[in-house]
From TrEMBL, chain A:
It is found in: Cell inner membrane; Cell membrane. It is a multi-pass membrane protein. NCBIfam families: HEQRo_perm_3TM. It comes from Bradyrhizobium iriomotense. InterPro entries: AA_ABC_transptr_permease_3TM (IPR010065), ArtM/GltK/GlnP/TcyL/YhdX-like (IPR043429), MetI-like (IPR000515), MetI-like_sf (IPR035906). PROSITE patterns: ABC_TM1 (PS50928). This is ABC transporter permease. Signal peptide: none annotated. The chain crosses the membrane at residues 23-46, 58-81, 101-120, 202-220. Keywords: Cell membrane, Membrane, Transmembrane, Transmembrane helix, Transport. It holds the Pfam family BPD_transp_1.
Amino acid sequence: MFGVLFEQTADGQRYIDWLLTGLGWTLALAFFGWWIAFAVGVVVGIGRTVQNRFVAALARLYVEIFRNIPVLVQMFLWYFVLPEILPGRLGDAIKQIPPPWGSFFPALVCLGLYTAARIAEQVRAGIEALPKGQTEAANALGLTPHLTYRHVIVPQALRLIVPSLTSEVMGIYKNTSVALTIGLMELTAQARQISEATFQTFTAFGAATLIYLVLALIAYQSMMLIDRAVRIPGSTPAKDAIEPALADDVQPGAALPHGMEVVK
Amino acid sequence: MRQQGAVSPSDGTSAIVVVEKLMKRFGRFTALNDVNLTVAKGEKIVLCGPSGSGKSTLIRCINHIEKHDGGRIVVDGVELMDRMADINSVRCEVGMVFQSFNLFPHLSVVENCMLAPMKVRGLSRAEAHERAMGLLRKVRIDGQADKYPAQLSGGQQQRVAIARALCMQPKIMLFDEPTSALDPEMVKEVLDTMVQLAGEGMTMVCVTHEMGFAREVADRVVFMDQGSIVEEGEPASFFRAPRTERARGFLNQIIH
């Protein structure tokens, strides 16, 4: 059924090569976008929790703006609107970036900054979930607020949010498909092109779907590995923590109500 | 370093902590009301009193983990006001041990002890490691140096917390109910460590309900109720014949 993918195209390639080029753009966009999102997200997330009200308000503003505008609209803003509102020469220079890059960079910035807002909220939640005693102990040792964040708070908060970051990783690469609307020939765009050239709609989008699924599984598995690698020795994931308690309950005698004892 | 806010202790050079007319409110609730306390160098003070009496709040004010609303606190000649530099220099000289240990779970035992000496005191990694191992040996837990806090028992964690505070070479140690979160069989190992520390001449202010410890170690017992110091005195006379009705009632309740 996927045989058509190996047929020659008009430009001498095979259709599968189109798909693979598209996959390349998708991966590049997701990978580099992720690092932008992660770096900005951690900084903004920390900003949400600091004492300084101005910084906290600024971070809040960032999150509300980038999280609440649809990705598609943001994509158009970066691609169509930004060059228009920038001063003439700078705007023209942006418009003249050659084809793949002229779409790639706006898409990269868009996805990076959008996902950053979501990551920032995870980071904030992670920081706020830590016991207050951690900050107090760090303060009592004379660590400045900066050192406290750097060595005590952030390392713990990031470990805490690895599972929820998994969905952000999967989110950013799925959102790469929106970049086709500003002309980036990524995976979905290539699938559509194949479908138009061959009229094999099912095959073209079926192949793209399978590739997206495999990517999702890889992303999920790698995040699981990271979660395991950074886990603090001696700490147990929430699921395991419950089981010993259950085991206690089924021990003989333990099931008796308090105050009752087995008469021998 | 200490030009601003430097105040000479009010009574002699031997006072290391001077608390005068201290006020602290949480919203409408007055946690501390006109508290005066002077701690001399080398002195061991036990703070006791019913829960909510303000004893924890008092020692948390001494290293400015709680901000006070009125009165003065002078620690080692530096008055605690809002200047961050003053606050941090005081915190370096004041070690604190918490009820819930508050070890850093993502760092190994020895790293817990090395962090502040390296980042605040500027020690090299090797110096900090050597100092940490020395103090972990002192609290008899050097065999567990590379484990993580979650792999230790409560008593062991609290001894690590004591070693971590000592690594900053503080001039005074504050203990905020250090044995209250421990299983009964682990209380002794922590108290033994504290007795040993007291024997070495460390200045200590302890909030604790361990009256045996107070009898053995304290120079002075300070009894607080409803945010004020109600009574203070030598442990022998305080336990034998408390002067106030409230102290008598409290002692009756905790000594069965």
